[in-house]
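Illustration: Undecaprenyl-diphosphatase.
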Amino acid sequence: MGDVTGIEILQAIQTIHSPLLDRVFGLITNLHHEAVYILVLPLIYWLYDKRFGRYMFSVFFIGFWSNDLLKDVFRTPRPDPSVFRVLYAETGGGYSFPSGHSQTPLVFWGAIAHHLQRRWFTWLIAALVFLIGFSRLYIAVHWPVDVVGGWAIGLVVLYIVVRTRSFWTGEHQRLGLRLLLAFLLPGAALGLLALVGTVDEVAWLIVGAYGGLLFGSALEEAWVGFDPRRGSPVQHLLKLVVGFALVLAVKEGLKFVLPDTGPGDLVRYWLVAVTATLAAPWVFARFIARPAAPAAGRAQSF
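Result:
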């Protein structure tokens, strides 16, 4: 993947640098960081729309999983630090093609832009995706073809998830089927990753979290039925504080019980996701933003 043209492009980009640009592009490249998604996804699920939140986690999972799978298929080495000025090398572990920093943000934020249908937001996301991808070339952890390939693959994945959105939201699916898919989909994804290569630490926890989210959200809709938009601004803030506290308590507390291994992380993040999608919403509906009593003669609706 690192042919002469790619080497020349990377060298040309590296001729323009400064301490300020180093910091700026370091910040930009870290916009594709797990902390960003850990913050955004609960905000969508707890405050905006549960089904859209479930869909967006599926979008994130598919974007990450397909990228991880393709990296193991192509097994392209990254630019050599002895040849190029490599910065923030810790953000570039594993194989090089396609760039996850190009593919996953395009799929994730592109799905949100498609949902919102706001031109200004679409242009903002386009600029963000470009800058994150370009930052990978500036810090020399990817070849140009990795970035362009990541964008191209991301567009294909985005098209697929948008066209199949009703499946990922769980609409028109019975509870039994949704619970079955909560184990089948992550299991199949994990099996394919193991078939083509090795399952890294991040893959274990992402697969676990995805299974827990599908499982917890299915039971929440059947048993709890909380309304994310119900409540005052103060109640919404309280939901965030309580929700993140519960999630953090489970995440950190289970470290003392479960082994620090891939399977251990899978179970831990499965339980963290169940906490976020089932336990926390139950607390919200029971103690913070209680549902209104149903009007006489009408069935209660959430």
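Reading the tokens back as a structure: The chain has two domains: 7-42+54-170, 173-284.
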